[in-house]
């Protein structure tokens, strides 16, 4: 049985709120003054976590869904979801670097700023595509089966908090403050809710099921993690191995939460 509208609304609001909470966690007293020294580690942590979500949580689910959809698992069966994965990746490339060209961290900036303001805002703009498809994925899965929808929601929720953490770190790295962080994380969170609502009212009527939504969303996520955050981490990490190790720490954090979640669901 599929999820009700109220249940989907709760999923969307909770996922969006996690973005905001992830950003606001950067503001306890005493942390903000020393934050710029930690930003490169925060970016690396978020990148590792997001990569783990794609390869461990989302892509295996895509393969499973298409196997059931086509009643077989062959190379030909997987061509279509892999094309959708590529489409999601290229869609983000198009919006970040064609419609709104992205300024990389390697360019000259003010000494008080780790990254230029436009770089932070275009990165957030690219994330809007990703977070919109988060909402579409939640709604599509929940319309097939409530339990599947709940699992997809929890998987997405796992990376929402670090995602807000990463968004806030980029905005702060551009020299902005709490107000801009709240606006940025709220905007990104609301696009997830928008994705839930649009799929519920429109998507299911045109046949846009979870089989198509999940690979598209994972392509967008893969781009943000691998093509936006990792290059920035590598540039600012320089010869400091601990920055690179923070990426692995993000992966480790994902696995801790991943196994804890599955243990809780099975108990």
* β-sheet strand percentage: under 5%
Mean pLDDT metric: 77
Radius of gyration computed on alpha carbons: 18 Å
Report the span from N to C terminus.
Answer: 22 Å
Number of strands: 0
Bin the helical content: over 70%
Low-confidence stretches: 100-111
Which geometry do the CA atoms define?
globular
Total helix count? 8
When the domains are counted, the total is 1
Note the main sheet: none
Structural class: mainly alpha
**H/E series:** HHHHHHHH
Helix/strand layout:
Elements: H1 5-24, H2 35-70, H3 75-99, H4 117-144, H5 146-173, H6 178-201, H7 210-237, H8 241-266
Helix pairs in contact: 1-4, 1-5, 1-6, 2-5, 2-7, 2-8, 3-4, 3-7, 4-5, 4-6, 4-7, 5-6, 5-8, 7-8
List keywords for this structure.
mainly alpha, globular, 267 residues
Task: Explain what the structure shows.
With 267 residues, this protein is mostly helical. The chain has one domain (5-27, 35-266). The protein contains eight helices and no strands. The longest helix has 36 residues, at 35-70. It is globular. The chain starts with a helix and ends with a helix.
């Amino acid at each position: 049985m599929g999820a009700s509208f109220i249940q989907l609304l709760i999923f969307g609001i909770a996922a969006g709120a996690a973005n905001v909470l992830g950003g606001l966690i950067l503001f306890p007293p005493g942390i903000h003054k020393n934050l710029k020294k930690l930003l490169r580690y925060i970016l690396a942590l978020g990148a590792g976590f997001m990569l783990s979500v794609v390869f461990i949580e989302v892509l295996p689910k895509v393969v499973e869904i298409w196997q059931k959809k086509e009643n077989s698992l062959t190379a030909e069966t997987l061509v279509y979801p892999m094309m959708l994965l590529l489409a999601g990746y290229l869609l983000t490339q198009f919006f970040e670097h064609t419609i709104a060209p992205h300024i990389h961290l390697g360019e000259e900036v003010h000494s008080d700023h780790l990254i230029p303001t436009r770089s932070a805002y275009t990165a957030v703009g690219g994330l809007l595509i990703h977070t919109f498809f988060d909402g579409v994925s939640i709604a599509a899965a929940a319309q097939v089966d409530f339990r599947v929808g709940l699992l997809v929601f929890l998987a997405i929720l796992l990376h929402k908090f670090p995602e807000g953490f990463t968004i806030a770190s980029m905005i702060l790295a551009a020299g902005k403050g709490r107000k801009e962080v709240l606006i940025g994380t709220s905007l990104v969170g609301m696009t997830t809710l928008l994705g839930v609502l649009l799929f519920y009212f429109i998507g299911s009527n045109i046949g846009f099921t979870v089989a198509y939504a999940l690979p598209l969303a994972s392509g967008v996520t893969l781009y943000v993690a691998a093509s936006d955050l990792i290059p920035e981490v590598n540039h600012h990490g320089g010869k400091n191995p601990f920055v690179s190790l923070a990426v692995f720490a993000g992966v480790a954090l994902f696995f801790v939460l991943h196994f804890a979640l599955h243990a809780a669901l099975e108990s």
